[in-house]
């Protein structure tokens, strides 16, 4: 099983593809540039089976319909943001991309409870990690020792909390109680920027000290 990071869209938001030896794959946060993402998937002869969203801000969902229309695959999102996919005001595209608002079809699976989820042969532990947005979630994959953290935790930083539904205290609590409890060698696959590790962020992230 392996992962790859693909920056997409106007903010170069990280989409991720997690694939296994059978060429099945999960797509995380297809944020834009649908044709680029489709080309990579087809060149590698991968077979997408689902799209998992960490949250529904516009820069994480821009290519959603462009991808799922090809393979007719399910989409997972936390129930707190189920309306954000269709609403440009909620997903932020109305304000950040005037004239290019994003409205995509609703998700097929709404996440609520934390715990183990299985998609095909892929197994994840789901953590609710709100603060950047009310429905932010993180997907921990034990098989690869990595967590797909969306915009909760970055290398040397944390997600912004000045957008609608953001809450800085809630975000710091999410990071400390959910993400920093993972093994220190866990790879953090963030929504923007390079990968990092839990150990590196515990030691070096200035936003996490003094909480």
From TrEMBL:
Give the superkingdom in one word.
Bacteria
The name this protein carries in UniProt is: MBL fold metallo-hydrolase
Keyword Membrane annotated: no
May I ask which residue range the UniProt record assigns to the signal sequence? none
Establish whether keyword Transferase is in the entry: no
List, alphabetically, the Gene3D superfamilies matched.
Ribonuclease Z/Hydroxyacylglutathione hydrolase-like
The residue stretches assigned to a coiled coil in this entry are: none
Q: What are the residue boundaries of the Metallo-beta-lactamase domain, all occurrences included?
A: 12-192
List UniProt keywords, sorted A-Z.
Answer: Hydrolase, Metal-binding, Zinc
């Amino acid at each position: 099983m392996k992962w790859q990071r693909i920056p997409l869209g106007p903010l170069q938001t990280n989409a991720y593809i997690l694939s296994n030896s059978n060429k099945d794959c999960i797509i995380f946060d297809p944020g834009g540039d649908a044709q680029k993402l489709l080309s990579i998937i087809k060149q590698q002869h991968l077979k997408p089976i689902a799209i998992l969203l960490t949250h529904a801000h516009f820069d994480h969902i821009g290519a959603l319909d462009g991808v799922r229309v090809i393979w007719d695959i399910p989409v997972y999102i936390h129930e707190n943001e189920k309306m954000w996919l269709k609403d440009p005001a909620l997903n932020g595209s109305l304000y950040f991309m005037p004239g290019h608002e994003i409205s995509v079809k609703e998700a097929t699976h709404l996440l609520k409870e934390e715990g183990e989820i299985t998609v095909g042969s892929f197994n994840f532990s789901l953590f609710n990690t709100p603060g950047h947005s009310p429905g932010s979630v993180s997907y921990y994959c034990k098989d690869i020792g990595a967590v797909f953290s969306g915009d909760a935790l970055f290398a040397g930083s944390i997600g912004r909390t000045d957008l609608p539904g953001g809450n800085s205290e809630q975000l710091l609590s999410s990071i400390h109680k959910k993400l920093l409890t993972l093994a220190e060698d866990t790879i953090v696959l963030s929504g923007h920027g390079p990968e990092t590790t839990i150990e590196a962020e515990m030691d070096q992230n200035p936003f996490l000290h003094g909480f």
